[in-house]
Design brief:
The chain has 2 domains: about 5-105, no CATH class; about 120-220, no CATH class. By secondary structure, it is mainly alpha-helical. Helices cover about 55% and strands about 5% of the residues.
Length: about 230
Amino acid sequence: MGSGKSIAAERFHQDSVAIALMQDGAPVPVYLEASLVLPDLEEAVRSRSAEIGDPRTRGANIVVDGVDELGHDGSGLLLGQARILAETWPNTRVLIVSRPMRSLREAEEHRGLPLLTEEQVHEVVELTAGREVRHAELFALPTAVSELITRPLFALLAGAWIRENDSVPRASIDLFAELGRHASETVKIDQAQLRAFAVLAVRRDLGEVAQAEIAGAVRRPTRRGE
């Protein structure tokens, strides 16, 4: 969560579009949400690119985002179909974007997104803080926070927190609170579910949280002293 995978996929697609505009016969750029690709990735690609060109002869640069939504079996099926297209169509690459899943993580093609360096964290935080932030101020944070802001989303949230509070975030939950505040400004959100999600995500070091668990945590009464 917050590693920048969707932005990286969009940048890859933008580059593919730019190449296709400049070069005749370049691979066809195709961007698909995971919900649209099964049961047949090839058919989904051909349908999406019908007005641009034939990917079977030109090849394609294909992005499939949100693959974790397909579950273990669906993601495994998609991976197999992606391999077939990459091996049988000319000049074809398929970029599958997902939160960590065993079926994908164990694939030989798997690549993880690198965390931000200290200098990159500093630059991103200052970008959203709108002011100079001293290195000493930022990197004297608790370990849990300093590790969290090596992910681009949370570095942006740390800068927003500094801008709004004129102080650095002291706990991971501060960054989730900032995320919730910004989200509430644009969409209607159940605040109790948001708090439950934040608590579960922090406890799991940003591991996966199922929707049913959030609902269960909201229904479960809080014990005195918690």
